[in-house]
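Researcher: Go.
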Amino acid sequence: MMRVALLTCGVLPDPDPDEKPLLDELARRGHEARPAVWDRPDEDFSAFDVLLIRATWDYALKSDRFSAWLDRPEIAPRVWNRPAAVQWNLHKGYLLELEARGVPIVPTELIPAGAVFDLRAIVAARGWDGIVVKPAVSAGSARTRRFSCDEIDEGAAFVRSWHQGVDAMVQPYLTSVEGGAHGRAERSMVWIDGSLSHVVEKSRRFAEDEESVRAMPPPTADQVAFATRAVEACGFDVLYARVDVMDGDDGSVLLGELELIEPSLFFGLGKGSVGRYVDAVERRVRQG
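Model: Structure:
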């Protein structure tokens, strides 16, 4: 019997659809499991056999505290994904590392926190029509906005309003995410314990938008190959990952994010996925 904490935050901005199927599967196997707020001061995390990061959706607002929490002696040996993978994944500059390792990514420019920048020059040099800007440490599409080629000055003002304390990311707006006549919508490929489990299609999402997802057919060989390439390039042994991809203007598949911290894994849309996830957790706890 395992004692399992599903790490969450004090106030969920949205319900976590993965929580119930995961709790139900753990209970079916005779394990004790419950949600636990990661930064609750009176929580005794040493009482659990394993800590599963699931809905810590406020981590980006408290990134320094979250980073320090991961290294606490009662946390680090019990938490999945492992602290080293999570720390690496906190800053979306990891995309440029993956690109250097041969993974095709959505073209990305980083603007260091507080730096003087010329957004119009960046966009012109890249030949982008519209852009998406976001903090390099963020979750849930917070402060993520799209600007057309006629709104670059507005976009620059938006970035300057918050980027004194955090790096900013600038990427082209890829019309394929709209789906339909524009191309294939964004896809999330869910990786569990060394293999691609299932794929979902997502609607585009900016700040304040609702997320809409639907199940896709079983993964293709091309999807398996891309997901494997992206996860292996990160260099960590991960219990889970979500490989978010979209199509470039030429139809090529590009990595948008490799989420190793608290992504929704859409258990309800992947037959058998919650069972495979719990199988992997059980094995890791046995192995110590």
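Model: The two ends are 14 Å apart (CA to CA).
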